[in-house]
Design goal:
single chain, alpha+beta, 8-stranded mixed β-sheet, 4 helices, about 30% helix, binds coenzyme A
Length: about 170
């Protein structure tokens, strides 16, 4: 029995490596789980308090992590992508503001950001009945959000000395 399991396990592992397919699982998590990734990716070299956002500890706030999927299909210990959604109005209407969207550099461009964002939007929409989402997007990330149906809603402005735009999405 043990040998059969070993054969199955090795086969599965080698197939995943051979195909070079990384699979991800998205989970709602606490701030502690994603904090290092957020700090290292978005506030590199700055003191930790710079990576704490207003609303981080509100009950209505959602933190999400994407994990690499392990060979049994469950989440491995490695968080590779994160985001946070804080309830914050858009044009006086109830909305969620997306903050702290980040993927570790070695996992960028492999679909994990897309998977996390689409999963998070759907879960929040389903659980809260809030349809409207917005963010202050770095100019360098505009293309990522546009691919996922977000639209530019402002001119470029500076935030922490970096060019940003306001972006918006209505999730049906
Ligand atoms: C922006 C970021 C979160 C995207 O995450 P990711 O895991 O690399 O994104 P994905 O691989 O899921 O990309 C999804 C799609 O968006 C595209 N995309 C990703 N980043 C992009 C960018 N900066 N500009 C244009 N397109 C981009 C991908 O090519 C992919 O397109 P496809 O579906 O046609 O293949 C990631 O690059 C990152 O952490 N950047 C540094 C931190 C940052 O700028 N965060 C955003 C702050 S507002």
């Amino acid at each position: 029995m043990y040998i059969l399991f070993l054969v199955w396990y090795c086969n599965k592992k080698f197939t995943m490596v051979e195909n070079n397919i990384l699979q991800f699982i998205v989970r709602k998590v606490d701030l502690k789980t994603i904090f290092n990734l957020r700090h290292e990716t978005l506030r590199q070299g700055l003191p930790e308090h710079e990576a704490i956002f207003e609303g981080d500890n509100e009950k209505s706030t959602y933190h999400f992590a994407a994990y690499l999927r392990d060979v049994e299909g469950g989440p491995s210990g490695n968080v590779v992508c994160c985001s946070t959604f804080v309830q914050n109005k858009w044009e006086e209407r109830q909305a969620y503001q997306l903050r702290g969207m980040a993927t570790y550099i070695q996992y960028q461009g492999q679909g994990v950001g897309k998977k996390l964002l689409v999963t998070a939007e759907a879960m929040i929409r389903h659980e809260t009945n809030i349809h409207e989402f917005w963010c202050n997007a770095r100019q360098s990330a505009i293309g990522f959000y546009e691919k996922l149906g977000w639209s530019i809603e402002s001119d470029i402005f500076l935030l922490r000395d970096e060019p940003h735009v306001k972006m918006y999405k209505l999730v049906q």
